[in-house]
Design goal:
The protein is an all-alpha fold. About 70% of the residues lie in helices and about 0% in strands. The longest helix is centred in the C-terminal third of the chain and has 31 residues, at about 395-425.
């Protein structure tokens, strides 16, 4: 792959991403069109996939955090280019592209995704949001799905997909020096109570306000699961696994990421239920013991932190009661006009009813309804200002696409998860393919649980990219497996 072409396209995407929030979409599209035209004959699907990942996981976040330059539109520009490449393949306008018709066996999953998109589209036509809010709300669903389309529609070989998986390892390990710098020179110099939110690695965020630390947590633990599975088959060295572990332990410790304990419990439970020659009683007892240890460790941490940072004495029981109540009670609002993560789902239920607004209840308020930005407020954000309505992904999906849309998106993920579990014991694949097939069900389970915790699962590029890349890798494997079956038959 020509290095000059790679650099040209990266610089082009950076310029367009920088120009979009300043000049607006009209001028950005003009720049993109004029600059992109000469590169059409040289850009490969592999280049699109690689640049999409490197922008979403590394470049966009670094520019915004360290240089205060917002270029996060770049990843969506590259994603849009992915559709153009796929269109060229489909129309056979360039001879070197070879489209393929793939029956991946995932039609049911895609139907649920399209049902979600349909709810979003109909409700959007009903509410007619501004163009900016519309684009912001659908950019992660639509623009980044091109990675899936490219792998499914075009000839992407397994060797390149393996290199992309290895690249994800590098993206994980590079978080260690970045998070240490953020801890030593940025977070420690802030005096506010949320200063540790400034530790976001190379993910989207700012020095003063924090960012997608939750998304980084999910990403690091996903790579940890992948490393563990690949280590079992010898595809990853002990040194690589150790590097991932050191990165995660360091990040969890300095950023005070409590959700990490939940993810550790999930990993332990997943391996217990998959272990051989272990009784169900042993599995449940071990999981209960581990969960008790995690709860005790979290409680001890809270008590220690309270004793060293506060003069107010609160008992463990009072702290637990307050935490549980804030988690589920939609009437408890903190100083930042925010309810608890789970409470945000109950808040949607309290503000919507079938009798009063059946259309909004079932298909939502349209794309961008909860968006709050300098360009204005979405319909829901404006109606309930200054209350934040989209604390987690489930709440965001409910407000935008309604009950039917949110359930459809959840079923889309769960059916993919079910298919991934059925594919993890494929003995005909290489050790790398076996490794990521074994890891993907756990990663998807992380993702599904995180929908109830972090809105970045559907509103930030890194998490969305990782999921669509995983869907694409699964689809590629299903296709290869079907081809082998047909050949043998």
């Amino acid at each position: 792959m020509n290095i000059a072409i790679q650099l040209y396209f990266i610089v082009l995407a950076l310029l367009v991403g920088f120009a979009t929030p300043i000049l607006g979409w009209k001028y950005a599209i003009m720049i993109f069109g004029v600059s992109f035209a000469p590169a059409l004959l040289f850009i490969t699907p592999e280049l699109i996939l690689f640049i999409t990942l490197i922008f979403g996981l590394i470049i966009d976040g670094v520019f915004e955090y360290f240089f205060n330059i917002v270029v996060h539109w770049s990843v969506y520009i590259v994603g849009l280019a992915g559709y153009l490449i796929s269109l060229m393949a489909a129309t056979r306008s360039v001879s070197k592209f070879s489209p393929k018709s793939i029956d991946t066996g995932i039609s049911t999953h895609i139907l649920f995704f399209f049902l979600f998109i349909a709810c979003l589209a109909v409700s959007t036509l009903n509410t007619r949001p501004g163009l900016y809010h519309l684009i912001v709300s659908v950019r992660d669903y639509f623009f980044l799905m091109s990675a899936y389309v490219i792998v499914v529609r075009m000839q992407i070989n397994d060797a390149f997909l393996q290199r992309l998986w290895k690249f994800l390892f590098y993206c994980a390990v590079v978080q260690l020096p970045v998070t240490l710098y953020q801890f030593l020179f940025i977070a420690r110099n802030r005096l506010d109570a949320t200063r540790w939110d400034a530790i976001v690695g190379t993910f989207i965020g700012t020095k003063s306000g924090g960012g997608d630390s939750g998304g980084l947590t999910i990403f690091l633990f996903s790579i940890l699961v992948l490393a563990i599975e690949l280590r079992k088959s010898g595809a990853v060295s002990k040194g690589n696994l150790l590097a991932i572990l050191i990165t995660i332990v360091t990040f969890v410790a300095i950023a005070e990421v409590k959700v990490a304990f939940v993810l550790l419990s999930v990993i332990a439970f997943w391996n217990l239920i998959g272990a051989k020659k272990v009784t169900i009683f042993t599995r449940l007892a071990t999981f209960a013991g581990f969960a008790a240890f995690i709860i005790g460790l979290t409680w001890f941490y809270d008590e220690f932190r309270q004793d060293t940072s506060s003069t107010q004495v609160v008992s463990g029981e009072e702290r637990l009661e307050k935490t549980l109540k804030y988690t589920i009670d939609p009437t408890l609002i903190d100083q930042s006009s925010t309810v608890g993560r789970v409470a945000s789902i109950f808040l949607w239920g309290a503000k919507n009813s079938v009798e009063r607004e059946p259309l909004s209840f079932f298909i939502g308020n349209g794309a961008g309804s909860t968006v709050s930005s300098r360009d204005g407020l979405g319909a829901v954000a404006k109606k309930y200002y200054p209350l934040r309505m989209d604390i987690n992904a489930v709440a965001l999906l409910l407000w935008d696409s309604g009950l039917i849309g949110a359930i459809s998106y959840g079923l889309f993920v769960l059916l993919i998860l079910r298919k991934a579990i059925a594919s993890r014991n494929d003995e005909t694949s290489s050790i790398w393919v076996k490794g990521y097939l074994a890891a993907i069900p756990q990663i998807l389970f992380f993702y599904f649980l995180s929908l109830f915790y972090n809105k970045g699962m559907v509103a930030n590029s890194p998490a969305t990219q990782l999921m669509f890349f995983i869907f694409a890798a699964l689809a590629s494997n299903w296709y290869a497996h079907k081809q082998k079956t047909v050949y043998k038959g």
